């Protein structure tokens, strides 16, 4: 049945199946569900000592965010300082699991664009060390250079204390978790307080010993992949052309992003539509507007880029406002200097979008400071025959320590 579908439909089916697979694999399965707000209120009404209620909260966790308003609500219900502290410590937003070698192989085999896999790696990290043999297999399966290069540079994402605490609340085998800790390392110091927190979360000797002896690594920071080969994106609200797969004469337009049976219409190859943005799930799906204001969804690679390339017929953009970046206190303290390169899109209004870091990060908050600064820059847009067009260009942000006057 799948082989009788048009190429665009097959890509959409594959993306949907992979989304379900990745979502299931990322969701921990608790032995006992975390406490709800009502259950915490019940504990407070039971008149147990605050220390016992706090211990119960630390043991099971909570399924709600302890905002200031929520904490004030519990304080009014009789929560003491120990309970309020336990509530703040027990809440950890769901931590997505890193990609496994099997998941990446499935994505490549399903003809997911390599650039999309690189973006997913940047957001979630990986849980293995790619070998030369694995890279050769990926290339044989159709992985492009952009993915091979990203895998070659990648290292396993280290465990944070919060991730281990989250996993200890699932049915995962603790011996297997200890083995993964030895392979991936940790991003925190195995001091007594951290080991005690893991013990309170359910850790036993094998895992605690693995944590004590694990290699230490820098915390994983999800972000934009530092690769120059990523394709240009299209600004929301801008016209684009539909691109057909080999052998297709039209593109299926879906009424909703995750229902493959609900095809709204088919549009011919090259049809101009309006790009409305990417959807959160499933990945690789875009929202468009077509006809007289109708909206629908298509596979990512059915969207043609409207970004112009710099050339003889395109006059490049010129900067008219470029404020300097702020030095972070920690970078100034550590004396860090350097230049960060970004690939950006300058739209027809002269504004910056789709900021992709190309150079190695400087750290100590300078990369985010540079991104925040570039977002403020303003340009006279690029033009083709006098008409403004969006273009992708490379920009640089430099950090230099000011020398004290002699």
Task: Describe this structure as you would to a colleague.
The protein is of the alpha+beta class and 406 residues long. Among the domains are: 54 residues, no CATH class; 53 residues, no CATH class; 65 residues, Roll (SH3 type barrels); 86 residues, TonB (TolA/TonB C-terminal domain). It is built from 15 helices and 14 strands. The strands form five sheets. Strands 1-4-5-6 form a four-stranded antiparallel beta sheet. Strands 7-12-13 form a three-stranded antiparallel beta sheet, with no helix packed on it. Helix 7 runs parallel beside helix 9 and helix 11 runs parallel beside helix 13. The longest helix is centred in the first third of the chain and has 20 residues. The radius of gyration is 25 Å and the shape is globular. About 3% of the residues have low confidence.
Would you kindly provide a brief summary of this structure?
The protein has helices spanning 7-26, 37-45, 50-60, 68-76, 81-90, 101-109, 114-124, 132-141, 145-153, 161-168, 174-184, 192-200, 205-213, 329-334, 366-374, and strands spanning 238-241, 250-254, 263-268, 272-278, 285-290, 294-299, 314-315, 318-321, 338-346, 352-357, 378-380, 382-384, 387-389, 391-399. It is an alpha+beta fold and 406 residues long.
